[in-house]
Amino acid sequence: MASAMSLEPHDFYACQNVCEVDVCFSLELTLECVRSYIFPTPMEWLFICLHLVLFTVGVLGNFLVCFVVVRSKHMQTVTNLFIMNLAVADFIVLVLCSPPTVLQSVTETWYMGEVMCKVVVFFQNTVIGVSVLTLSAIAVERYFAICRPLQPRITQRKVTVTVLVIWLISAAMGSPNMTNIVVTYFKNAELNQYLATCQSGLDYQMAEVYLMFIVIAFYLVPMVIIGIFYLIISHHLWHVRVPGTTIRGEYFTLRLFQHTKMLIAIVFLADSITNLLKVC
What we know:
mainly alpha; elongated; Rhopdopsin 7-helix transmembrane proteins; 2 domains; NPY_rcpt
């Protein structure tokens, strides 16, 4: 009786038409093995459908924001230009990062190669920075517009420079991923195959340091800045009475503040949806 034939782990398709005396590998068995592992399960189909809905809503919503602001001159206010920057950042991460991330989550392997691996992770981290820094810039702009109305207004040129600086800082924060993120291979016990994954190549301690730096720079510091400026704005609107203002003027100011709060809430909701797509 001949001994069982040994197959290389990576040569999975070699087992399709190989047969010895006591061992046969059929095409049907091979396809069933691949299908049972890679083909989405019912729960994974639900996961894909959820991402598809969020992807469609996010892409259309962010595109419409950019379209309206670009086409309508009266919509090109300072705040709306910052919001358009948020929409551009979210649109990029939805189109570029969401599909390959979902594919890896479902199939448990990375198909896009090392270059795309670095690009996807780089933009994921860069867009996080762009989002939080833009929200911080909106808070600062609202402070000067409401609490310092006699100061020179922020011009569109200054907004353009601010947006450029925001992208440069965020890209610098995410640039370590261009060298540290690698595609690594691991052997899957079920398939007897080597699968790929896109992950950080840093050791545990360095990865912890980098993560802590990102959390402080992109979450804690912007959160403090946003909180302080909106607390000052709230105090100004509720406790400071400008001489000569009318009840109608005060009502208009309060309505403006309410609209601003609603706008920030909508922006945070959109970013939360985008971050959900990144994490998942």
